[in-house]
Design goal:
Number of strands: 0
Structural class: mainly alpha
Order of helices and strands: HHHHHHHHHH
Number of helices: 10
Strand content: under 5%
Shape: globular
Length: 240
């Protein structure tokens, strides 16, 4: 009988992929945030600064956490986990607040569909919240589930960040809208290869994330532009 290989406790995959994700996230914001902030060419509200601080803080902490596990410092990893929980707890209301504020700005500017991109914001918030909350629950129960759920949470932040570059490309609808998240989802295939190499099978979290997120992200542009969503969204976001 063939025995299943045990998971590698200090797996390099999550540490390396965390650095890759963090690097791509940081490189996604020079034109829309860092340079305008440094030059004073654009004014940002306090809400945007707080949202960005929590966002970058969580990504930075994710890099540190995966590195700690890689080097075997599990005790400090667990202690810093509380900071990750606190940041995630701040990111959810900040993300929703930012989504509402952005919709109000688009509505005031006279956009035809001011709530179109609100769907992306809502999906991102819900997916991150589920992955993060479930990952916290699994932290002391099933470590391999915890690792992959945190990876999914990180991917969910990478997609929206990467959209800053993708939206500048001359891509037609719906590719311009779905491509940022689909690029992020492509890293799930790398995770699947890692699963096969380390545990001998594709992990249920990897399979579930691919089966749910890829179709969802492909359908988002069509739902976002639909009459049904744009009729429902104003009430959903408190614009009565």
């Amino acid at each position: 009988m063939k025995h299943q290989r045990p998971a590698v406790r200090g797996s390099r995959f999550f540490a390396v992929s965390a650095i890759l994700i963090a690097g791509l996230v940081v490189l996604s914001f020079p034109l829309t945030y860092f340079i305008p902030l440094a030059t004073g060419s654009k004014h940002f509200t306090l809400l945007r600064h707080l949202h960005g601080l929590a966002f970058f803080g969580w990504i930075a902490l994710y890099v540190v956490q995966t590195r700690l596990v890689r080097t075997g410092n599990v005790r400090l990893h667990r202690e810093l986990g509380m900071a990750g929980v606190a940041l995630a707890g701040a990111m959810l209301p900040l993300g929703l607040w930012q989504a509402v504020s952005a919709a109000a700005e688009r509505q005031a500017a006279g956009f035809d569909r001011p709530f179109e991109t609100s769907l992306y914001n809502l999906v991102d918030i819900v997916v991150f919240g589920i992955a993060m909350g479930w990952g916290i629950y699994e932290a002391t129960r099933r470590i391999e589930w915890h690792r992959r759920l945190m990876f999914v949470a990180a991917l969910n932040l990478f997609g929206p960040a990467f959209s800053r570059w993708m939206l500048r490309l001359p891509l037609p609808f719906p590719w311009v809208d779905m491509s940022p998240n689909l690029v992020a989802d492509a890293l799930l295939f790398a995770l699947a290869l890692h699963d096969r190499r380390t545990i001998g099978r594709i992990h249920p979290v990897t399979i579930g994330a691919a089966l749910i997120l890829i179709p969802l992200h492909a359908a988002e542009p069509f739902i976002a532009r639909s009459e049904g969503w744009n009729a429902l969204a104003p009430g959903l976001f408190g614009f009565w």
